[in-house]
Amino acid sequence: MQWPADRVAPRLAAISAALALAGCATFSPDGGFGEVERIAKDRGGNELRWVRTDADRQASETRVAEILARPLSTEDAVQVALLNNRGLQARFHDLGISESDLVQAGRLPNPHFSMMRARLGDEYKIEQALTLNVLALVTMPLALEVEKHRLARTQREVAMDVLKLAGETRVTYYSAVAAEESARYMRKVMEAAEASAELARRMAQIGNWSKLNQAREHSFYADATLQLAKAENNATVSREQLTRLMGLWGSQIAFRLPERLPELPKEATDLPSVESAALDMRLDLNAAKLETEALARNLGLAKATRFINVLEFGPARVLEGQKSDPYKKGYEVSLELPIFDWGSSKVAKAEAIYMQAVERTAEMAVNARSEVREAYKGYRVSFDIARHYRDEIVPLRKRIADENLLRYNGMLIGIFELLADARSQIASVNSSVEATRDFWIASANLAMALIGKPSLSGGVAISSPRAMEAGAH
Fold first, then answer.
1. What is the pLDDT of residues 23-39, one digit of tens each?
2. Domain residue limits at 358
3. What CATH number is attached to the domain comprising 383?
4. pLDDT at position 316, please?
């Protein structure tokens, strides 16, 4: 069949444009991981690796082994978690899923071939058609733009999960170090209580101590034993939480933690514009804005296809009569007629989903302001408390202990008063450790509130939005 010359040029132009779009629909070398890696490096400075080959796995394991060979610092623990947490590695594959959708949206739809053959004696009827979904070609640029925004949103959501894992690892690290330090102090308390109880028992045996005083000392020893058991269990729980976040098993769980928490900074960080900083930096807000923009484009796509969902066009040929007769050539057009459904429900649904995203983004902005104010207040208060313990309470307890030791040496007080004062001093040091721990946790919470919604308790939740997204569509 010969096409008129005046119709050839427009058809060639349309085909060329479609082929150009299809040529752009290729997979990137990094699977969209480069943007996630950039955000993570800018916000945290840690190394990030998407394990997709055996060589990647070997490199990660070697790096983790190097870090675990020394006592872990805070950032060492974070680095191990980012390299070794399998839930995070699973989350990275959402990038591959989103990029596959993007590539699919930019590729030409497969043509459809149909054939009908009928025969009566020597009479034949044969129909053959090769059609292409023209509507998919027309809407391809808009669909491609929608998938680009979805990939960008996925990249920011994955980067958010990276930073959440880093933040939770810091919090758990501080808790684990403080728990082990507290357990050590509680062992000292228990040892002092045990010595006091044994001395009271011996003195009671020779009649130099009343049964009441002996019972009081034994009661303190029993309570100290219970508190030590709780402290040791808390140390075990905190350490196992950190082990899970870092993805360690086997001989790796014998990692070493430092004996003490990091020292307090000289001054707390002053953030007068903390709200505006959060609105500029928070990745969850950026992801919500991108999602809203994608839904706006999806709304345009829904309006563009509200009347016609399927429009296929292509060449066809028909044979009627003897099998040796020539084919009649022409074309076939197939479309869905909007008789019962004019697409209003589809457009209304798209509009409702879009407005829902707008309201949720606005709510997220309001909550972000409140969350960062709360986190900053907690940070400043916890710093003041920890500094008060460090500069006032602990030194004062030490001076009292020194004075009591002098009084004991001068035989002005007895051994029980000295032991009681030693227990009190140890308890104040333990409270100082807890206050320092609370400061560093508050510092990690503030850092998290500045980049995303805080979610730093229980266990890191690395989940995929794909199922939810599929349900929405």
1. 456 778 888 888 888 88
2. 267-306+347-454
3. 1.20.1600.10
4. 65
Please name the residue that has the structure tokens 């998919």: 136
The predicted pLDDT at position 150 comes to 83
Q: What is the dihedral of CA 21, 27, 33, 35, to 10 degrees?
A: -20
Encoding tokens for residue 415? Answer: 């051994």
Question: b/e for 160-170, b at 16 or more Cβ within 10 A?
Answer: bbbbbbbbbbb
What values do phi and psi take at 426, rounded to 5? Answer: -60, -40
Predicted local distance difference test score (pLDDT) of residue 74: 92
Nearest CA to 102 out of 21, 160, 161 is that of 21
Q: Same domain, yes or no, for 354 and 213?
A: no
- All residue ranges of the chain with pLDDT < 70 are 1-25, 126, 132, 134-136, 138-139, 209, 297-321, 323, 328, 330-347, 404-405, 408-416, 418-423, 453-473
> Rounded to whole angstroms, what are the CA distances from 25 to 20, 238, 305?
9, 47, 22
Q: Is residue 52 located within the same domain as residue 83?
A: yes
The count of domains in the chain is 2
- State the SS3 of 340-407: CCCCHHHHHHHHHHHHHHHHHHHHHHHHHHHHHHHHHHHHHHHHHHHHHHHHHHHHHHHHHHHHHHHH
- Given a contact cutoff of 8 angstroms between Cβ atoms, the answer to whether 182 and 430 are in contact is yes
| Cα separation, 361 vs 291, whole angstroms | 9
pLDDT of residue 113: 77
Please tell me the predicted confidence (pLDDT) of residue 87: 93
State pTM to two decimals: 0.74
Nearest to 405 by CA among 390, 415, 395, 394: 415
